[in-house]
Specification:
Blueprint (H helix, E strand, L loop, with lengths): L2 H18 L10 H28 L7
Length: about 60
């Protein structure tokens, strides 16, 4: 591989990257998606809390890293 070829590929990738991910602008998220994500975050938080308490009762190490 020649360094010039890699540089050309890199520039082509940068130039065409937006088209690879669709036509919506970067960061465009609908309100429904935000609500769904917030609900999922809440669910996962409850599950982590539940398992932390269950592990503590069983005398096992915490699930947190």
């Amino acid at each position: 591989m020649h360094a010039n070829q890699i540089s050309q590929w890199r520039q082509q990738a940068i130039d065409n990257m937006a088209a690879s991910f669709g036509k919506e602008p970067v960061g465009a998220v609908s309100e429904d998606e935000v609500k769904d994500l917030h609900a999922k975050i809440g669910q996962l938080t409850l599950e982590v809390d539940f398992f932390e308490r269950a592990f503590a009762k069983a005398g096992l190490p915490s699930v947190k890293r």
